[in-house]
Fold this sequence. Notes:
The chain is α/β, with parallel strands linked by helices. The protein contains 14 helices and twelve strands.
Amino acid sequence: xxxxxxxxxxxRFSTPIKVVIIPHKNPDGDAxxxxxxxxxxxxxxxxxxxxxxxxEFPDFLKWLPGxxxxxxxxxxxxxxxxxxxxxxxxxxxDFNSLSRINGVAETLEHFKGDYIMIDHxxxxxxxxxxxxxxxxxxxxxxxxxxxxxxxxxxQKITQEIATCLYTGIMTDTGSFRFPSTxxxxxxxxxxxxxKGANNSEIHNAIYDTSSLDKLQLLGCALKNLVQLPEYNTxxxxxxxxELAQYNFKKGDTEGFVNYGLSLKGIKFxxxxxxxxxxxIVKISLRSKGDFSVNDFARLHFNGGGHTNAAGGRSTISxxxxxxxxxxxxxxxxxxxx
Length: 337
């Protein structure tokens, strides 16, 4: 984002305008954290801002300050539609293609204002007038922090903003252990703690609130884990029947795929989750080193993301999806050894 663009945005924020902030569908900690942080930041201007999420988000995020103000598009269609039609600016956070927001994209066809994209995924589309895209960043939350500094407003970072940003950075970096976690990321985290983010309380609120059902679902997932030593690969499956058996709720499988990647010598890990609601198989992919799950997901499973973390989807059955995946591995044997 250029100096001229930053000045343009400063001028626009100094006048009464309406802003809508949108995360991707099935929003995670980084998506919700970045949107709420920006929401609290814009409240300090003359902006009338609203966060519109395409669908529900996990319960373990609903303690974040401002979650009670989020409009759920699937549930509050009329309100969301009116807000988008009357907006002057739309921020799209933690995604870079309007295909990632389901029906919200159709409503945006009536939007006549400008888009601002803040995102750290690869291959961004060109719909935004203002684009801040950086694939080297740990998270969109780290980018929102930088955006606030670009605006010359570091002093406007409140405890609420710091809490939201810390949450997104922590969750998107796997508690600061993924390769995208840089020294700059740690310096941002230190500043957020100084601004009032309580790191211990945030960690407990995200990771230490499991239900018995969720823990038993994890046990089921680990029991289903399959190791393919010749490809340094593991995969986990969860059928819709298994999800129902353990009263699955959105967010319950967050982080399950990382258990596979924790095995010694494993370079590639996946989890295949059969979604009855969406009638697809959701796929989370993780890797170590230079094996690009972003490329793999884009080429084979209509997905994408980062080099070491990506998502995908399949419209065939769970069994056939796994068969397709296993059949692809011989072509990647050299890369995975």
